[in-house]
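Sample intake sheet
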Amino acid sequence: MAQINKNFEKLPGSYLFAEIARRTAAYQEANPDASLIKLGIGDVTQPLVPAVIEAMHEAVDEQGVAETLKGYGPYEGYDFLREAIRDHDYRARGVDIALDEIFISDGAKSDCGNIGDIFAKDNKIAVCDPVYPVYVDSNAMEGRAGEYDVDAEAWTNIHYMPTTAENGFFPAIPDIHVDIIYLCSPNNPTGTVLDRDQLRAWVDYANDNDAVIMFDAAYERFITEDDIPHSIFEIEGAKSCAIEFRSFSKTAGFTGMRCGYTVIPHDLVRQGQSLNEMWLRRQSTKFNGASYIIQKGASAIYTSEGKRQIEETIRFYLENARIIKDGLEKCGLQVFGAVNSPYVWCKTPEGIGSWEFFNRLLEEANVITTPGAGFGPAGEGYIRLTGFGERPATKEAVSRIRRMLS
């Protein structure tokens, strides 16, 4: 008999966003005339910028000519994209990253989930709480999270680090030994950021304890404040303890195109093994590389015109987030984010539970959000809203919520 991975039986319910989709579909079926506005899943609504479209059209034409046809590409990505990343995302910020430390993929979510392949099952995991579900669920699927405690709504082998308004959204350095640390800045879901001193404390801890930091910088292009690091490698010592994940999904509208990248420095060595070489071995075995056409499109955002165009889109989403934040604050709600992030993190009124408030917003305002409890125990009592909607829909959603609460 074929044996299954029993760790899947431990997973509670369905994936967060799948559950939101299920509840939304059930409500829509029962209320077919309801006009729903989606401020839940962070999917983009603005079209790909012209520079990207032009580059992909050019790549398609190349695929129709024998002399320029591209078959299997390099496992780690084409040099033209990696060079653009190295020069614009790192060297321009004073960070020296080598070309072969950059790995192109089909998105940060895939890499965040797959990176566990190069680590042993008995590592102790630490995550911010609330947290992007993929960090926790992927470790649970591999048996690294222990058992799920239904009462605590937490995994026994995961160290949860509350990242809340009470501690300034800075997860405390653990007083126990942990091996793998997941940090996200700008944070998904709270929309808050870590400053240089806060990141330096984590880098020092990781180096002192031979731990590895998984640093998710998927939203770094939304950072507006000058003193906030865009990369953990801006912190001295990070190359010997950190892996960085980035994505083109939200910054360039690639949610449907799928492209991102991971940076693993050569200095990152554990138990005598280069994690850079291990990841290349993993990728060359399990991954055939991101599409040439998509990589051509991604490279276009680094041109002068491409940069200008995506900055316009990013400003559009940030303005949406500001509209949501201002509107909810006028209702007397406590709201965070929206400054360096397209996400708005809102405390529910009068101690209402996250899922209860989600249901109220869905049924009474016809607005879809994301319940904070889905991001971890410390997310209870919050909801997340996104600035990725259309402008008229965003304004209408805020008006509906204000009417509901009044």
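Comment: The CA atoms of residues 63 and 144 lie 43 Å apart. The first strand starts at residue 37 and ends at 38.
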